[in-house]
Amino acid sequence: MTFREILGQDTSTAFFRHARKSGRLAHAYLFTGPEGVGKGTFARALAKWILCRKPADDACGACDSCRQIESGNSLSFVHLTPPTDRKGVQKTVIDVESVRDLNARLASKIAAGDSRVVLFDDPIGDDAANALLKLLEEPPAGNLFLIVTQSPASLPATIHSRCHRVRFRPIADALISKRLEERSGIAAADARFLARLAQGSMGKAVAYAEDGWKETRDKLREIAAGRARDPENYDMGEALDALIKEGAEAEDSGEKDGEPDTAIADYRKSLRKTRERARTCLAILALFYRDLVMSRENGAEAADPETLAELGKVLEKVTTDRLIERLETLLQADAYLRRNANVRLTIEWALVA
Ligand SMILES: [Zn+2]
């Protein structure tokens, strides 16, 4: 990954080029911004460029350092993410043990003129954040710390005060849809819908594209059509409930005791997929509600006018205030899911709230 390949973050690229050129790189940066706008990708590109043996405006991609980073074998680039435990189950946060291991690595001196980049990739546990703070208070020479987070409020103010903050903004729809067309061969109309759905996040757009968004949208269209055909007897709430729950079916509470570790790991993986699926459903619904409100208020163009027209008929008698309330509930449900809330309970809450 290099700056060249990053979408829509030219301001940050220019900022770091200038800082380096003028010898004013700080020792720690905090990257904030919405999910999927490229904070982590940018941090990796920055690390590669800082460590590149022949850096120009970007990493060269060909020197030993660039190649080692690409293959994950660089000793100068430390990338911390939530670790997996002995059973192969991924933890939800970077824990304090990870930072202790890091301290041991940082004890090895860096050759004069060389540097090392340490990337903390969200989410960071409270104990780990305190240990990180100690590192930032007395940063070992030659190390550059990059901290990526989408919930800056969860980090202590003392960490904020020791980092230079770089804000990442949503990416323009046109850039996202263009890239989806070019890289993934997605048809123009679908790419535009996905870009709207992803709200400035390339990461989300790609995730939706891989997660059967179209199927979900088409089912929603069927639900709307069903209601339009038989307004008296068609239970729209029930149909929507079924649609979202389809993604939630796999989640049940509790561990599966006595099974081999790999089965547990597979099970966890399927839960993660379920969560993503449920989030896709919520996002599509939220987009339709948003578009419906917008088209009522100012006739704005919808991401999918055809489906919206169907849905508009069905929700004709629902007031705009109520639509906005529904929209807020959907967004709140998504925030709960992002923070690892139980999928089924959250969806049930979202549909009755
Ligand atoms: Zn290089």
Give the CA-based shape.
Answer: elongated
Average pLDDT over all residues: 87
Number of contiguous helices: 15
Q: What is the CATH architecture term of the largest domain?
A: 3-Layer(aba) Sandwich
Report low-confidence residues grouped into runs of 5 or more: 250-255
Give me the CATH fold name of the largest domain: Rossmann fold
In the CATH hierarchy, what is the class of the largest domain? Answer: Alpha Beta
- Helix and strand composition category: alpha/beta
Major sheet details: 5 strands, parallel
**H/E topology pattern:** HEHHEHEHEHEHHHHHHHHH
Ligands bound, unique: zinc ion
CATH superfamily of the largest domain: P-loop containing nucleotide triphosphate hydrolases
**β-sheet strand percentage:** 5-15%
Strand order of the largest sheet: 2-3-4-1-5
| Tally of domains | 2
Annotation, overall tally of beta strands: 5
Characterize the structure shown.
The protein is α/β, with parallel strands linked by helices and 353 residues long. The chain is 56% helix and 7% strand. The chain has 15 helices and 5 strands. Strands 2-3-4-1-5 form a 5-stranded parallel beta sheet, sandwiched between helices. Strand 2, helix 4 (96-106) and strand 3 form a beta-alpha-beta unit. It is elongated, with a radius of gyration of 23 Å. The structure holds zinc ion. Zinc ion binds next to helix 3.
